[in-house]
Amino acid sequence: MPESITITDNRTGQAIEVPIVEGGVNAAEWSKLLPGLWFYDPGFSATAECESAITYIDGEAGVLEYRGYPIEQLAEQASYLEVAYLLLKGELPTPAQLDAFVAEVTGHTFIHENVKRFLEGFHYDAHPMGMLVSEVGALSTFYPDAKDIEDPATRWNHTVRLIAKMPTLAAATHRFCSGRPFVYPDASLSFAENFLSMMWKTSGQPFEADPALVRAVELLFILHADHEQNCSTTTMRVVGSAHADPYSGVAAACAALYGPRHGGANEAVLRMLASIGTLDEVPAFVQSVKEGHGRLQGFGHRVYKNYDPRAKIIRKAAYDVFDVTGKNPLLDIALKLEEVALADDYFISRRLYPNVDFYSGLIYQALGFPVEMFPVLFAIPRTSGWLAHWNEMLDHKTKIARPRQLYTGSPRRDFVPLSGRS
Ligand code: CMC
């Protein structure tokens, strides 16, 4: 029997049966039953914006799956490009499909030489994430055919291009900021290793990254690849719903990711840990958060009301990295902060747990990345998630995103000429 709820409209006394679809109410059905009645839902915390078959989260249980595969298994056994393929195509690739995909991505890692000139226009201390937003947006002008979003082959071509070029743009941005020459992609290296080479290679010397560090980058890329309708993915869908090209969409998604409540959080975590300084200061810091002086960065999540499964994996992986790089001294402060917060009623009652950003910054820092690069590192793998959602949205022939509002401004009034205003 189909599920439904019955509500009484107290204005008319009429009983109305509202069908429940997949655990929620379909707004189109609701509007037919109760025309003109609005949903007021700022921040969309009770609104499903779309149907999606890409990522499943059970926030109560702390479960995350890509296309049905548990994140723990993917983190342990898959490569990032395997995961990107899975997100985009819905199935794990066969060995032949993976080889073809890797070859395709590798073939698109180069960026137009003019992009390097574009970089030169930035001020020397520009934030790398601000630069990335502009660079990705600029790519839209290099590939005007990307506007043909109705053609599946064109869409795939630019999906691959974007995934391939993000590490190159990211590394070029870093090299520019640190005054070092651009390093071209190396087709003989894996996706993660090539990124590290473009970041750190010294000209004239062979580049060899420690396999444990390459694996750590790969792991972080897998964990960050998708997270269903987060702020930047929603941005990608909203911009995409206007049929903008994917470069413009990814630039907008990057802009959302730049915010400290989203992809900027791991940068904020490190700054917070550094400002706490010593273990003794942890209780006083937690107290100040409880008194409303800022937030405990890297804690809390709109969906997870349990330990973020990605944070668990990263916390464990941190030790493998520290075995190679030496321990990040901020780790002890992070562990103490977690211990104090998780025992405190303020955090318990609000169900605030460490999220993905709480430990990721510590690894990035140990790997040698400056904090300003953290959101950029998040954007590289999330590009595959954004594009999986963008393609899915276009396949679903979604309408343009156009929410309504509750107007709370002035009622109609007549214009007063400047001379009549005091
Ligand atoms: N520290 C202290 N208090 C918090 C925190 C925090 N990190 N997060 C939420 N709260 C409190 C908040 O003050 C509110 O308390 P009250 O009910 O007394 O007003 C309650 O918990 C609910 O908070 P909310 O702001 O309504 O929750 P939200 O779902 O809108 O926000 C969040 C989610 C992630 C933006 C928020 O938890 C936050 O700002 N966390 C810190 C930033 C962060 O770590 N962001 C990374 C998110 S995960 C990666 C990603 O998505 O990019």
Explain how this protein is built.
The strands form two sheets. Strands 1-2-3 form a three-stranded antiparallel beta sheet. It has a three-stranded antiparallel beta sheet with strand order 4-5-6. Helix content is 52%, strand content 6%. Helix 7 runs parallel beside helix 8. The protein is globular. It is mainly alpha-helical and 422 residues long. It contains 18 helices and six strands.
Identify the notable features of this structure and list them briefly.
globular; about 425 residues; mainly alpha; 6 strands; about 50% helix; three-stranded antiparallel sheet
Label the structural class.
Answer: mainly alpha
Share of residues in strands: 5-15%
Largest sheet strand order: 1-2-3
- Give helix % range: 40-55%
Tell me how many strands there are: 6
The string of secondary-structure elements, in order, is EEEHEEEHHHHHHHHHHHHHHHHH
- Helix count equals 18
| Main sheet overview | 3 strands, antiparallel
Question: What is the overall pLDDT average?
Answer: 93
Label the overall shape. globular
Rg from Cα? 24 Å
Cα distance spanning the termini: 67 Å
What ligand species are in this complex?
A: carboxymethyl coenzyme *A
Which stretches of 5+ consecutive residues score pLDDT under 50?
Answer: none
